[in-house]
């Protein structure tokens, strides 16, 4: 036991360590696992102490657990070359991992970072970390995922991010390769710079109940990825060509809410087999939002488009001129108005003025002749949002004039 403690030498090699270091040997102890007889390092804090983990040169250590502390720093090369089966950072106020801290650490069965109020991964922190069965990040907040924070990690069986909040993800924040399953669950990625999520040579990518506020051209880069699923997610803006890929078999967005689907949002994708876009709600779309998906180029693609709801106003009048989603359907037949899921868009028709600007959407065959006017009003404009929509769309002047006329008529009638 004493020998092992001796082996865990405390090397105070890093710069900032001294001023803020707590007595490492009081917190970190090398113990022996009674079952396996293997030594492991345990750093348990009692009073949220701040400390810097000293370099470990006892190569027989197979497990490290750091728990219940204040500010913890893992300095440059401190864990280099260890044959660690398990690494666990749990319940910390702040965790800072400095560059190359875990270089040449390989064959890890589980690396867990959980319950960290402020995660601060410095550029190249994980360079040289490879061959990991499970990489788990859970209940962690990071104000910025810096450039190259989780980059150069390779060969991971399961990469799981759960219940986390990342305010800003910089370029190459997550640049990982050779992954079997990449899952992000219930996690917020507020602002994603271009190339912030770059997955290479990956089998399955699943985002479930995630939030993405802002994206950019190329925020999501998938190279040699088999399938990508977004389920029950919330997107603020999906920027033009936000998703990039080389041949990708499956791309799917289902049960999600999209505030603004920018023109040619899917333009960066190269799809091989299946495109799924079902049960989504979209506030703002453009005539060209889907342009590179609904093209003859993709006539062989298995297109699963169904049951999406849109804000029904003149902003979607272009859907009426879109033909044949596949051999049997049009986009119109498979789309609905927000709040009226039982009614497909086909029951409406856009009314154009003489300049071919859309004036309103009108019910095709209103039940009673007298209620035509009323229908126009209800489908066209029922709340304050509608004025904004009107202003944003072409031909609003005409509609405005039309509505004024309508109001005057009604007033005259009332009088
Ligand atoms: C740990 O460091 C933080 C600042 O990073 C400080 O506010 C806190 O008081 C320190 N805690 C201890 C126990 O020294
Ligand atoms: C999540 O982590 C925070 C510390 O950042 C902790 O206070 C909280 O209890 C954790 N939540 C769960 C559900 O474990
Ligand atoms: C990733 O996997 C491929 C083969 O699937 C292999 O050739 C390549 O060396 C791996 N890359 C790394 C960094 O392990
Ligand atoms: C990526 O973003 C950076 C700044 O955020 C910008 O300078 C660069 O031009 C962008 N690259 C592409 C390809 O859009
Ligand atoms: C998006 O970025 C790519 C480079 O990655 C560039 O070629 C393309 O022009 C950009 N598209 C837009 C719409 O900015
Ligand atoms: C179109 O309809 C035909 C027969 O009605 C059916 O066999 C085929 O599977 C349908 N295609 C799609 C894409 O739904």
UniProtKB/TrEMBL annotation:
Region forming the signal peptide: 1-17
Superkingdom of the source species: Eukaryota
Coiled coil: none
InterPro entries, A to Z: Beta_helix (IPR039448), LRR_dom_sf (IPR032675), Pectin_lyase_fold/virulence (IPR011050)
Stretches assigned to the Right handed beta helix domain: 129-261
Alphabetic keyword roster: Signal
SUPFAM superfamilies (UniProt xref): Pectin lyase-like
Protein name per the record: Right handed beta helix domain-containing protein
Organism expressing this protein natively: Araneus ventricosus
